[in-house]
Automatic annotation (TrEMBL):
Its main location: membrane. Belongs to the binding-protein-dependent transport system permease family. The lineage of its organism: Bacteria, Pseudomonadati, Pseudomonadota, Gammaproteobacteria, Pseudomonadales. SUPFAM superfamilies: MetI-like. InterPro entries: MetI-like, MetI-like_sf. This is Inner membrane ABC transporter permease protein YejB.
């Protein structure tokens, strides 16, 4: 297992480089950029933009932009060169990419073009919101889906199985952001009740609260966004758990265990559970990455939660390339590490799995 882990860790490097290169090329081809935005701003709001243009290098080693846009006509060539140097556009694309890889190897992501803060500071500042949403949503999804999926497998075809399947299909068919809007209308002062807050992760007077009041306030603010996340996420895992258990229940070793006189609980949780959970464990990295960084984007916007999803979305709109590439690098790295952890968990759940022998086969 140790050799397999080392191999997987070594593969993380070329995988990261490949993903960053692909996205770098896509960004190069995308129209617009911070240079064009600054030029347009200079033509419309001369004073502030000229001050920014003289502000020096802001860490734009990964961006692209052309000074030949229509907005650049009539501007002095020296000023255009200064703007390009400010964002790092005065170097060829391959040099910018190599410099980016060198800096990212030491987790130096540079500074945001438009926020006057380093990328790592922005990520650390936004991380608590995304972790709160993703962690609690994932925990609740698994606490609901696994027992429900097992119960549906045991009572396959019963009334309970039918009506829960209907409820799951309805919940899955409603997008999470629509359910979030419904929750706001019903419970956050929309048209009916005003039981929950609409904005933020904590109240304005959070620092003056006692420790138990802080805990209550924290979960009070999380109640609606986490509920919206859970509704859209538990359906797939529930059906996956059910089908996995049904597949295992029909196998010969289960028939043999029952023939030996073992109780049904011993058969389910002593024999079936370990094998059936393998496919559920395999889906954990994808669920975590999705809920942490992508699935909660609209939820963050709707509930005014300033997390990583909203940060990445705004960076893409503003062509804030250091933030785009910095968050992409961290998200990709975390996804690859979580996938490796998932494989290690496979072995912990079922020691019969040997990835090293499979790779050598």
């Amino acid at each position: 297992m140790g050799i397999y882990i080392l191999r997987r860790l070594a593969l993380i490097i070329p995988t990261l480089v490949g993903i960053m290169l692909l996205n770098f090329i896509i960004v190069q081809a995308a129209p617009g950029g911070p240079v064009e935005q600054l030029i347009a701003e200079m033509e419309g709001h001369g004073g502030s933009a000229l001050a920014r243009a003289g502000g020096g290098d802001t860490g734009g080693e990964v961006a692209t932009g052309s000074s030949d846009s229509r907005g650049s006509r009539g501007l002095p060539p020296e000023l255009l060169q200064e703007i390009e140097a400010m964002y790092g556009f005065d170097k060829p694309a391959h040099e910018r990419f190599l410099m980016m890889l060198k800096d990212y190897a030491t987790f130096d992501f540079g500074e945001s073009f438009f926020r006057d803060r380093t990328v790592i500071e922005l990520i650390i500042d936004k991380m608590p919101v995304s972790i709160s949403l993703g962690l609690w949503s994932t925990l609740i999804i698994y606490l609901i889906s696994i027992p429900l999926g097992i119960r549906k497998a045991v009572s396959d075809g019963s009334r309970f199985d039918v009506w829960t399947s209907s409820a799951i299909v309805v919940g899955y068919a409603i997008p999470g952001f629509l359910f979030a809007i419904l929750l706001i209308v019903l419970f956050a002062g929309g048209s009916y009740f005003d039981w929950f807050p609409l904005r933020g992760l904590t109240s304005a007077d959070f620092e003056q609260m006692t420790w138990y009041q802080k805990i209550g306030d924290y979960f009070w603010h999380l109640a609606l966004p986490v509920t919206a996340n859970v509704i859209g996420g538990f359906a797939t895992l529930t059906l996956l758990t059910k089908n996995s258990f049904l597949d295992e229940i029909g196998k010969q070793y289960v028939v043999t265990a029952r023939a030996k006189g073992l109780e049904e609980k011993q058969v389910l949780y002593g024999h079936v559970f370990r094998n059936a959970m393998l496919i559920v464990i395999a889906s954990l990295p994808g669920v975590l990455v999705s809920l942490f960084f992508t699935g909660s984007l609209l939820i963050e916007v709707i509930f005014s939660l300033d997390g990583l999803g909203l940060l990445g979305f705004e960076a893409a709109l503003n062509r804030d390339y250091p933030v785009i590439f910095g968050t992409l690098y961290i998200f990709t790295l975390m996804g690859l590490v979580l996938k490796l952890i998932s494989d290690i968990t496979y072995v912990l759940v079922d020691p019969r799995i040997d990835f090293e022998s499979r790779e050598g086969a």
